[in-house]
Amino acid sequence: MEPTQVTLDAKQIRVLAHPLRSRLLGQLRLDGPATATRLAESLGTNTGATSYHLRQLADVGLVAEDETAGRGRERWWRAAHDMSSWQRDAFAGDPDATAASDWLDSYALQRLVARAESWQRARPGESPAWRTAAGFSDYIVTLGTEQLSALTAELDTVIERYRALGETDPGPDARQVLLYLYAVPRLEDPA
User: Fold this and answer.
1) Of 15, 184, 5, 11, whose CA–CA distance to 94 is shortest?
2) CA dihedral 101, 103, 104, 109 (to 10 degrees)
3) Is 168 inside any structural domain?
4) What pLDDT sits at residue 8?
5) Interatomic CA distance for residues 100 and 15, integer angstroms
6) CA distance linking residue 13 with residue 21, whole number of Å
7) To bridge 5 with a disulfide, which of 83, 127, 130, 158 should be the other Cys (CB 3.0-4.6 Å)?
8) Which residues pair with 83 in a beta bridge?
9) What is the per-residue pLDDT for 99?
10) Residue 92 is part of a domain; what is its CATH number?
11) How far is 12 from 62, CA to CA, in rounded Å?
């Protein structure tokens, strides 16, 4: 099944630019539908705050009630889309949405660093196969903006092919893998 994607509008990005809301949406995307209580336990917060922020995300169409799960008064939530994207320049003239975009970019980078550091700590206890398969690479290429856009689109196609393969024919040791693509032009080296 094709993954669903939403290009965030100004209202959605302002709502999503909140630490707990971003974590809630991420958790639902990683682990699937859950109740506010389960999410609160998983994220170390309280159920009331979790319920409130889930409703805020639902109001802008980023999460939805999962009516196929639960029973009785249990209220289950699911991510409404598999992926979110945004372009900072789409919010020109809207300082709040621009600030939200900047916050989300920074938050995503912090999460990347935290997850990479977590893997570094856990790696010695992983199997040799996973230690060999998972890793970090960096490449230096000289490209124009159109070439970089084309490269990114081509890599997206390859990643989608493997995502679909993982859903239809996962390997015997399959598990979720977080794959990041973060292409940035070289600037002056930070001090």
Assistant:
1) 11
2) 130
3) no
4) 97
5) 8
6) 11
7) 83
8) 5
9) 98
10) 1.10.10.10
11) 8
